Amino acid sequence: MDQVKIGKFIADCRKKTNLTQMQLAEKLNITDRAISKWETGKSLPDSSIMLELCDILGISVNDLLCGEIVTMANYNKELENNLLEIIKQKEQADKRLLSIEVFIGITAIIVLFALIFVAAFIQMETWLRISLIVFGFILFWAGCFYALRIEQVAGYYECAHCKHRHVPTYKAVNMAMHMGRTRYIRCPQCGKNSWQKKVLSKD
After folding, report:
1. What fold characterizes domain 3-70?
2. What pLDDT shows up at residue 9?
3. Is the overall model pTM greater than 0.90, yes or no?
C-alpha cells in the first residue's frame, strides 16, 4: 500500500467534508498530530478506527486502502490486492517479531550469566551477591515470558495431520514439549496432538 497516496487521499476527503485536522481528530478522539502523520504518509490509521474514519469521510475501507475512490468495475480486484498486501505486511511483521524473540532470548541468557559471574568472582557482601543472582533470574524469566509470547502470536503452527494452521493459547505453547520452534501441541481442528512447525503464512 502506498502510504503517501493514502495520506493525500485522506487530506482531500477531509477537506471535502470541510473538516480541519483538529476537528477530525476530535471526532476520532485522537490527536491532530496523528492526522498529520497520516496525511504526510508517515503512518496509517489504526485498524480500530478505520471504520469510523471512513464513515466520517464518506468512503469505504477499500477506498481508503487504495488511496482513491474505487469504481464498481475494479472493486473486487482492488479488494483482493489490498487483502494480499495486508497478509504480506503481517508476514513481514511476524518475521521481524521472531527475530526480536531470538534477540530477547540471547540477551536474557547473557545477562543472567553475566550477573552470576559477577556474583561468583567479585568480592562483595553476601546479601548483594544473592540479590544479583535473584535479579538475574528475574530478568531471565521476564525475557523468556516475552520471547514465548512473541512466538505464540507471530505466525501460525501447522498441524502435521490435517495441515490446519492456527494460533494456540499462551498456556498451550508454554506447556508444550518443543524442539526450537516446533512444538508438540493439540490441533483445534482435528483434535490430534502432533509436532507442529511454526509457519508465517495462514495458507
Report:
1. 434 Repressor (Amino-terminal Domain) (1.10.260)
2. 93
3. no
